[in-house]
């Protein structure tokens, strides 16, 4: 059904239309793709190696393969000079100069890690999560490469997303349902806050100023705001997690600084934040959502009926995300929503995973069909 506007979420899967009447969510009305038409046998990207475009290797608003034959690439990050990514199946972290020609061979910083997933960079190191049945951990490796690394935090049970600021590294600890941090200089990991089992597992994490924003992956999951400083106090005699009743009371009162700014999010995953808003993807319902950082009102639906939306990124005008299901797409919509719907930037991005942007370029990873190794790609698109 064509959309006449956009909606705000209310409980039990209903939405508020512009007239203020509760209605069921409708299919999304999208504008025509801006990506170029391709042959059926194409991977859905422009071949820029022989391009005659005046813009050289990165024509405007056309998807470009900057690295192919990758082994299930997942997390991706940027600094001013390089793009970095994780290859989950061969356990490698790789980097490529952002001004390099497409398909220039990327450098391997470290390899042989156990199922790395997400990463973050500062001026000297890359930090990434590594999932193992017996020894999940957070690992640090120098940006100069050479294959050296050190285990930054050991015994972290299923760490997922990760970020870094000037002094600390922060990550979500999936199995223990806690958010953790550790000084970059020295010291041991400490728990910043925990969530109740009914709220699911902490998954995505983002930061703005002195606050963290965390999604929890469950049917009854929430979007939490919490100061970067710890407020976690375990119950006497327990193994390091407070009980559900204590957590629920804390959430309701804001005690300890934890605040649920959106509730009952059905399997929330990736999250991004700017000075005004928090943005996130919801896997099961296919929503891409926005809410003021103050947490007032109901979330604004930027897009619905998305096929397993996963990674999310923002610049000063747009929200970008990957659809991990179906044929896979990279999409974007204006911050605040657009009555015309979202735009498909790139089609046929099989298992599109995570995305990052600096406002001039957007980069993303695609795992490929998943039946064999080395069918994933790292992609780029010039936005201006």
Describe what this molecule looks like in 3D.
The protein has one helix and 31 strands. It has one helix at 244-253; strands at residues 7-10, 14-16, 22-24, 64-70, 73-78, 82-87, 92-97, 107-110, 116-121, 125-130, 137-142, 150-154, 159-164, 168-173, 178-183, 190-194, 201-208, 211-217, 221-227, 259-265, 268-273, 277-282, 287-292, 300-303, 309-314, 318-323, 329-334, 343-346, 352-357, 361-366, 376-382. The strands form seven sheets. Strands 3-2-1-24-23-22-21 form a seven-stranded antiparallel β-sheet, with no helix packed on it. A hairpin with a 4-residue loop joins strand 22 and strand 23. The longest helix is centred in the middle third of the chain and has 10 residues, at 244-253. The chain starts with 6 loop residues before the first strand and ends with a strand.
Sketch the major β-sheet. 7 strands, antiparallel
Rg (C-alpha, Å): 20 Å
Strand line-up of the largest beta sheet: 3-2-1-24-23-22-21
**Which consecutive residue ranges, at least 5 long each, have pLDDT under 50?**
1-54, 235-255
Helix content: under 10%
**Class based on secondary structure composition and strand pairing:** mainly beta
What is the average per-residue confidence, as pLDDT, rounded to a whole number? Answer: 83
Distance between the termini: 33 Å
Proportion in β-strands = over 45%
Number of strand elements = 31
The tally of helices reads: 1
Task: Describe what is shown at a glance.
3% of the residues lie in helices and 46% in strands. It is built from one helix and 31 strands.
Which labels suit this protein?
mainly beta, single chain, 3% helix, 384 residues, disordered N terminus
């Amino acid at each position: 059904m064509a959309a006449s506007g956009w909606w705000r979420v209310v409980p039990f899967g209903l939405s508020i239309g512009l007239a203020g009447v509760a209605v069921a969510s409708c299919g999304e009305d999208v504008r025509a793709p801006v990506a170029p038409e391709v042959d059926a046998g194409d991977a859905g990207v422009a071949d820029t190696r022989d391009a005659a475009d005046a813009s050289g290797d990165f024509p405007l608003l056309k998807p470009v393969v900057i690295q192919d034959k990758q082994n299930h690439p997942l997390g991706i990050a940027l600094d001013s000079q390089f793009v970095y990514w994780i290859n989950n199946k061969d356990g490698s972290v790789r980097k490529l100069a952002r001004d390099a020609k497409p398909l220039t061979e990327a450098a391997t910083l470290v390899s042989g890690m156990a199922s790395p997933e997400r990463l973050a960079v500062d001026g000297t190191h890359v930090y990434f999560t590594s999932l193992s049945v017996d020894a999940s951990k957070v690992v640090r490796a120098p940006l100069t490469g050479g294959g050296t690394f050190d285990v930054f935090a050991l015994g972290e049970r299923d760490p997922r997303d990760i970020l870094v600021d000037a002094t600390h590294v922060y990550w979500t600890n999936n199995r223990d349902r806690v958010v953790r941090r550790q000084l970059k200089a020295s010291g041991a990991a400490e728990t910043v806050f925990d969530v109740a089992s009914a709220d699911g597992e902490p998954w995505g994490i983002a930061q703005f100023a002195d606050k963290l924003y965390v999604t929890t992956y469950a049917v009854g999951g929430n979007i939490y705001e919490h100061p970067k400083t710890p407020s976690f106090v375990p119950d006497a005699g327990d193994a390091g997690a407070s009980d559900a009743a204590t957590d629920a009371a804390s959430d309701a009162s804001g005690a300890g600084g934890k605040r649920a700014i959106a509730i009952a999010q059905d399997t929330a995953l990736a999250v991004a934040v700017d000075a005004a808003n928090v943005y996130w993807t919801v896997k099961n319902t296919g929503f891409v959502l926005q809410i003021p950082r103050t947490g007032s009102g109901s979330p604004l639906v930027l897009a619905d009926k998305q096929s397993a939306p996963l990674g999310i990124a923002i610049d000063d005008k747009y929200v970008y995300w990957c659809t991990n299901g179906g044929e896979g797409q990279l999409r974007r919509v204006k911050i605040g929503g657009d009555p015309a719907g979202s735009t498909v930037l790139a089609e046929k991005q099989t298992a599109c995973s995570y995305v990052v942007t600096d406002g001039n370029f957007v980069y993303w990873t695609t795992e490929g069909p998943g039946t064999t190794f080395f069918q994933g790609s790292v992609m780029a698109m010039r936005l201006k």
